[in-house]
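Supplementary Methods, section 5.1.

A reviewer requested that the exact input to the structure prediction be made available. We therefore reproduce it here, unchanged from the version used in the analyses.
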Amino acid sequence: MKKTPIAVSTLLLASLLVGSCTKKTTSSTSGTANSTMMPGEAAAVKNQENINVTQVSPPQVITEDPKFKFVTEQFADLRILRYQVPGFEKLTAKQKELLYYLYEAALSGRDIIYDQNYKHNLRIRRTLDAIVQNKRDPSTSPDWEKFMEYTKRVWFANGIHHHYSANKMLPEFSQEFLAASIKKVPANKLPLVKGESVETFIKWITPILFDPKLDAKQVNKAAGEDLIKTSAVNFYEGVTQKEVEAFYAKKDVKNDPRPVSNGLNSKVVKENGQVVEKVWKADGMYGPAIQRIIFWLEKAVTVAENDKQRLALQKLVDFYRTGDLKTFDEYNIAWVQDVDSQIDVVNGFIEVYDDPLGLKGSYESVVSFRDEEATKRIKAIGDQAQWFEDNSPLLLQHKKKNVVGITAKVITTVVEGGDAAPATPIGINLPNANWIRKEHGSKSVNLGNIVHAYNESANTGGSALSEFAFNQEEIDRAKKYGSLASDLHTDMHEVIGHASGQINPGVDTPKQTLKNYASTMEEGRADLVALYYVMDPKLVQIGVMPSLEAGKAEYDAYIRNGLMTQLARLAPGEKIEEDHMRNRQMVAAWAYEKGKKDNVIERITREGKTYFKVNDYAKLRELFGQLLRETQRITSEGDFKAAEKLVETYGVKVDQALHKEVLQRYSKLNIAPYNGFIQPKLTPVVKDGKIVDVLLVYPDNFTQQMLEYGEVYNTLPHYN
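The structure derived from this sequence is encoded token-by-token as follows.
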């Protein structure tokens, strides 16, 4: 909706934001914050449009906007989407104000994820941004088009390594074009270090971008290699895998019933011959960005919906100030216990997939509010969590006698930051600490409006379903039940999957026992719980599934994806590295092999094309139950050798002939295997120094949003 702005002084907003943070922002090369302002103020002022104070937020209702454009562009292996935020207009002014503060906090950590992903990413991104901003000539060339494609891929991945495969993305424009483009940019707009000339800078950046052997892999999880030395991720520097493992072995307390997540919020380096941690906190590493996050979180505390939410937000602030992991656990407990608030936020160093050792948390944030109607489905599953645990095929000693506090809901996402954007999860289950989950419970969510956007965007381009499904019966079943089946799988994966099972007394956490296989095993275990129960009549009885035909649709889709279609995400010759892809192939390939005797899953070649057809859904469910029992045993007992054998045998290797075929078939469909999002934009309406409303609009230009983020949320020095 087009707005007619009138002038409103940005000083109004500045006066509104003064006073909640006692520390001045530290200096950085970004130059985004005025030295007389508190951390975050400059960005807040800079991010505002001139808004008429009489305006209110327009309704954001999906069903009333059939012309909403979900797909904006497609390039390389990526497609850029948008999502809607239905129900935003029904929130109170105070709730919108809270969302705005959390929105700013989420985006304020953007530089952190770039730096975490690779130590040179910030200089590279700032170079690419400067070249794009400097272009005044509207004419294009093949090199320019390839440059823009590469730049957008870097924005999408939060760095120069592919967001999913972790392989270095190589430019297709020439080195000469890069040099010429850099020389056109004024030197003061380039991310030069002290005493560096433009020519020296060009010589430095060229091999970093173009040399395929230099920092080729962001995250390496290959067995038998030093996973630290061979990974470019910026969690470690100057240390070996053995040194890191020995360092944390000294920190870990054996048989601690409530262990802290050692290593979650730090970089490990060697200084003066000693291995030390550089902790991510307000007065430590990433300080300028964290101070800005704190600024906005403290504003959020003042408009919290209730005391429990206020406590959780304050604990998060305390954690960011101190870096104390016990405080982080206190925050997670407080966050889990806040079940009444409609507004919610994930913010912090959370998932450990990007660390080859599974210790370091990548910065991410998800800001949302509860979808009351859609939550009824997922809540119905959560309410039966104990029944699912009691009736699972797990060994008796691995079952929880008392499943505690699973809060299940569907959320409407407002904005995501860090590792959660532009590519986003569709389900979240937190916290990650097993002892907190056991004693205090967990929150499981389905990102409802994100899933809706994916479903709507699937109507564009060719049909992978028609290409890879075996027959019309399978296609018809998928069209009728596929969307619901996928939602149910996500619901159960997050709600009862991650929450199920328990570790044997005296056994350390999976990150300590299963090491680099911990994440793959955990995702596989959660998938298997969902797969086992998606064919259970219980789902029909509690009213969340119309019939077992929906379960069959999910079995068809899972086998088709795990054995075949997900290979479209890999380049020729690659093995599978990403944990979710590993777990899907591991589960599907194991079931295929173990079911060969009974022809449970049949591999069929027809007219030169390969298909996988499920012949016996009941026996496939039995196989899923057997593998679930084994993955839980491995997790409960900390059986590293069994985890290694299972993952390496079934989850890593790729059938190269089948891979080539899948790539050829996909190339004809005009479908990008990866999707990400342009974020909605929130803008406060300020009157008499107070926020009286927040406007929500939907940008539709990915490049423009990335450049704006690069300018407004440019918080950190080139190196940290």
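Residues 1-64 have pLDDT under 50 and may be disordered. These observations are discussed further in the main text.
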